[in-house]
Amino acid sequence: MRFIRNFTQAFFFAFIFWTGVSFAEESITSGEAKEPVVLLASEEPRPLKLAIQLGLDFRFEEPVNTSDQKDTNQAYELGFLLQKKNWALVEELIYSQDESSGGVLSISYQALEWNHWVQYHFVPEKRFHPYLGLALGLSANEVTTKLSGVSRSDQSRIYFNYAGAAGISYRGFSQVEFLCELRVWKFEQKKDPISSGLLSVRYFFENY
Amino acid sequence: MRSKNLLLSVIGLTGLLYLAACGSKETPTHVLLPEILPSGGSTLSEVQIQTLPDPKVAAGSAAVVYASPKLTRDGFSGDAAEPHLSESGHVWIPMNVDSSAALSVYYAFEKLQQFESNVFPQSMIRWPRKVAINFRLLDGGVNNAFYTGRYDVTAIVPYNSSGLPVAFNSGIVAHEHFHAHFHALFGSGFVESSELHLHGQKAQASATGRCGLDENIVSTDKTSFEFIRTVNETIYRSWNEGLADFYAALVTGSTNFFDESLLGEGRRDVGVRDFRLASRLEFESWIENDIEVEMSIGRSYKSCESLQNAYRQGSQLARRTYAYYLAKYDKNSPSFKQDVAKDFFARLYESQSSMKARASSSNLQPSWILTQLGISENESTPIDAAFMKSLPLGDVK
To answer: Are the beta carbons of B261 and B161 closer than 8 angstroms?
Structure first.
């Protein structure tokens, strides 16, 4: 719990700091316009940028809400991004699974989510820049319950998901960005929101 | 043109999925839970929980279930457990073992509440019951459950054995629940030195540090008030455990429900034909031995002979009571359980004052409880052998 709280606080302050720094730099350069921003060749703004991203979403939740016991489940992320200036659309697929057992009983599930993100990137031409995002998505899962060797699988209905995110992007190479994002999810099938931390790598296609 | 068609296809597919998400809302009416079978073993069943307004919160008129809470002066801390569930047609599917355990415990208490509203209207316990799953003992004890009258709560501790976890064993839940009735009926007369009913002498000793004995008792003088009270409390403990075993076997229809979880090789099987009850003299000698051992080597679960034997005597009482009611009522009658439970609770209710009056008696006999239930005290085997062989023990519906 302490780790999650510290991580969240550190992320929040880092996000505020970078947003402030980015805006300050932007207002200085745009207000006085004494020296034009020097962009590298690879940083020249294109009208539309396309990228693919892979990541891990670490979800902090309890096996039963209100329990003192906490779990961190990791979900695997695959995303496609279309970006025009400050705005980006991300189509994201997330796969997660988990298993719990006690004696002769074991319960496992596999879940697939499809999320549509809208992101606003502050000063995206900067190597280090913050962004905010909102998502609407769908999810479904399959739960397998095994008791004394007898197994049964149940397919869920399709649920809605909603999410908000704040992240920091770092351009490590000319076509590669590293993302660190804090998310808050509301899954229709879960009573309370859950938080997660996404770490992902984004690759921009050069010749799109 | 191609990219426009692709975009339209993606938008169309997305729209269809969203329509499906909007249109597929059928509110489930059942929950998938493991249940023990009267004939032994367990199965997955789609059960209907009637008193739970929202299955995503394990709190209703029957029970409030907490997940790994802390026990405070006011009872369990925190809010009711919120299970993670998935909707599949008409069934809620628990997404992990803890979620399933929370609802399974709730369901067990709902069945007990419904059953007892008919058979024991004079009941003095309060609903909803407060129950914990995954309750963590300070010594890290596992595979157990207890009821404590001091806080009027029931707790199930973590499970790491290879059977059915205790939270899914409605027999053990019913057993613990019966302790609440016993405490409400007789607790003010016989207040045991340990109200914490952990099963097994090792668990009890390590949790309470005194293996069921009053910590102030140091004398083996059989005429002293402390010694007499300790003997009576140990007898009371054997009654409490034995009648709880009997009641759980009655409501579940499974005589050997403990073994589904605790793998005890039938040691507490209520259907076994062994009825001998120990005398008061034997109880006195067990306690005398425990005091002497504790005085010489310090408190240790190895010295809890009296507690161990209290459980054994409890099993004997449960077997005798079970056989008595099988002989008294028609086991094939649809109202068998109700008839037996009404008779059983009515007799316990009527015996309150006479039992309390004997709390300090120096000649309270372990078999005295039998007379209160209408069972002959002197017969060692109340039912003849031929009749016993014909009984379908363990298969009572």
So the answer is: yes
Looking at the complex, report in whole angstroms how far the Cα of residue B323 sits from the nearest Cα belonging to chain A.
31
Beta-carbon contacts of B288 under 8 Å, excluding residues fewer than 6 positions away, are B220, B222
Tell me the backbone φ, ψ of residue B134, rounded to 5 degrees.
Answer: 55, 35
Q: Is B67 within 8 Å of A67 when comparing Cβ atoms?
A: yes
Task: Please give the DSSP secondary-structure letter assigned to residue B125.
Answer: -
Rounded CA gap, A58 and A67, in Å?
Answer: 19
- The reported pTM is 0.84
Identify which of B78, B85, B165 has the shortest CB distance to residue A103. B165
**Does B76 have pLDDT greater than 60?**
yes
Which of chain A's residues have a Cβ under 8 Å away from the Cβ of B34?
A: 105, 147
Residues 6+ apart with CB under 8 A from B9: none
- Tokens 């394990």 found at: B58
Q: Are B63 and A71 in contact (CB under 8 A)?
A: no
The stretches of chain A forming alpha helices (DSSP H) are 2-32
Chain B positions touching A156 (Cβ under 8 A) are 86-88, 93
Residue B18 tokens read as 């969203």
Residues 6+ apart with CB under 8 A from A49: A81, A82, A83, A84, A204, A208
- Evaluate the CA torsion angle B52, B58, B59, B62 in order and state its sign: positive
The interaxial angle of helices B280-297 and B305-328, nearest 10 deg, is 160
Phi, psi of A163 (to 5 degrees): -155, 155
Give CA–CA dist A197/B108, Å, rounded.
38
ipTM of the complex: 0.84
pLDDT digits (tens, 9 = 90+) for B155-172: 999 999 999 999 999 999
pLDDT at B150: 84
10 Å CB burial of residue A74 (0-12, 13-18, 19+) is: middle
Tokens at residue B116, please? Answer: 């007892």
Residue whose tokens read 């076994």: B272
In this structure, are residues B254 and B268 in contact, taking their beta carbons and an 8 Å threshold?
no
